[in-house]
Design a protein that fits this description.
The complex is a heterodimer of chains A (about 400) and B (about 325). Chain A is about 50% helix and about 15% strand. By secondary structure, chain A is α+β, with helices and mostly antiparallel strands. In chain A, a hairpin with a 2-residue loop joins β2 (about 145-150) and β3 (about 150-160). In chain A, α4 runs parallel beside α8, α8 (about 250-265) packs antiparallel against α11 and α10 packs antiparallel against α12. Chain B is α+β, with helices and mostly antiparallel strands and about 325 residues long. In chain B, a hairpin with a 5-residue loop joins β3 and β4. The longest helix of chain B has about 35 residues, at about 160-190. Chain B is globular and about 70 Å long. Classes of the chains: A alpha+beta (about 400), B alpha+beta (about 325).
Chain lengths: ~400, ~325
Amino acid sequence: VDFAPAPEQVELRRELRAFLVEPAVQEEIARMRECPRGTEPDPTAIYRRLGERRWFAVNWPEEYGGQGRSLYDAAVVSEELHWHDVPDTMHTVTADIVGLFLLLAADPDQKRRFLLPMARGELLVSVLYTEPEAGSDLSSLRTKAFRSGGGYLLYGTKVFSLRSHSSHYGLCAARTTEGPNPQHGITLFLVPLDAEGVTIRPLWSIADERFDEVVLDGVRVGEDAVVGPVDRGWQLMSGALQLERTGVEQSFKARRWLDLVIRRAQETGRLTDPTIGAAIAELDAEVEAGRILAWSVLSRITHNQLDAAAAAMSKWYSSELVRRIAALAVELDGVTAMLSRWDPDAPLHGFAESLYRDAPGMTISAGSSEVMLHIVASAGLGIPEEVTSRTSG
Amino acid sequence: MTGAERELCAAVREVVENGESTWSALGKRDLIVPAASPGLATVLVAEQLGRYRYHGPHLEATVAADVLSGDLRARVVAGETVVSVDLAALAPHATPTFLRFAADSSHLLMGDPEGELLLYETGAPGVTLRRYDDLGASELFTAHVDAVPVERLRKEDWPEIRNAAQTRLAAYLIGLAGGALDETVEYTKRRRQFGRPIASFQSVSFRLAALAARLEAARMFVYHAGARIDDGLAIDRIAPQSLALAARLAREVTADAIQLHGAVGMTQQAPVALCYRMAAVAGCLLGSPTALLRTAADRLASDPYAARFAITDHDKGVRTQ
């Protein structure tokens, strides 16, 4: 593991920070910070500016609108966006999750059609995997795709999707073949979310970002909507999940939140309080450890040494820290910490209240803590697979 | 890990497993404070020694190598002699004098209230040792010294020496915990109850997986601190943090190791029982985790960058606001 960032990453960070503090960009960020209750901030203007500079998907090949840079550089972009309060969900989903999937599995024509506008931050694509009865056990999904007139008809319900209501397409996993092996017979489709038969409804959550329920009721897509080989989507999904699960996102979120706790503790003189100070110093160490672990996973992927157990450790470790950071943020200010960002007396824009609502999602999304520990136990510690319950990403 | 780092670990393992006059063998092969790297390489050596439950004066030798010069330093690094260091002088708060391996040492390195470091010959008239009876059979001594020091040493870089020592002890504890965890994983795969290996129960496997993940993160953190020593970067905050994390984790891992072994883990010959005892003593040698974390909190409080994004020197160089 190389612990010092390469000079080109330091330079990229410098350029990004210069960009993110430009007055026009700061104005956008301030506007999003102050968005009224019940509305969601719209970062697409900033996404397009990032796209103009080929930063939105910085690790993609140049021909698809990226800069052909490393996964590290992509992580640097995500970190800086998050640390500067630019909502990054749609960026992560479009560039890192769907984009990675398309780079791995799409045909040349799909790559041309989708990747360029995605890299410009103009075409946003959400993920439609989870269903009411298929969460961690994703291979039990029930959404079906029937062949019909040179294409497919899709029927099913997807839930807990993020930002489908603001996206143009959804990457949808559906069953094309029934059989005894649930992992066989799944196919991936790029579904236009404005197509006839698509209904998107909000599933309000306690976190700042709502979930969507996306009902597909006979949605017609062409043959060209199929991504990768028919019936063999499961292998692709698992492979892509392993590449995107590094813990980097969880680790920079933990860093950001703990930094806010530290700032608040500094303001109130509590850092030198014996109990609070020691608790913060311990979490500060663990958050840094989580970051180093996450970057070491990235390093392994870059060197083609994908290590599923290390990746699961990393995701589990940093996401679990967030719960403790949330608890500490509450400890620090008591009831005052529970004032929301819409209350003028809330410390630091009500970060603690927002963090407290966001924290539970960290250990559920992108692979629950239980699934992560299962992967660590089986792939990492070699505890026999057949005697533990079978779960997937 | 690079190839060279792997070779280093393999070399330490070979020496320890050979079992004969380990300390001098380590010295002969330049494995005590590898000349190439006082930071990461020394951290890796310490970790390996912990992993194999080697109980020897490595921490003392690394401190002596940082403090001393000339012939005595050369002999310490070559494993030819032992300098016992008063670890109380390295702890954040005053504790009684704790000298490990004093009976085997040629010299004692003691702190004094004036803040100097004093070097004594162990066999000099006026030096009397008393061995403590302790939990870990740790070769802990206290000394009564009424003698003239052979040398008074400068102490300007004492904070750096203390930081480096904390990092190396952290690595030793990570190794100790790692060895205990491996032992436990293998045991729970072998041990059958209710007709199946106990590792196959999620209450067992998840506990092991969580400890493995925390250990891996702490290990990376300690390596990071070691690498920073080699790069000449400050570790004022992360050194006490790394030791606090490692010490708490080592206690927790070794306690869970006994739990998952059941009563057999409490038998005197059980390796995990030895780890449990060693972890408790080693984990406090340079101050309790809470005391170390309070030191780190003070350093956090005086760092104006503490709450600004990621806190690394590399990042500080590119701050724009």
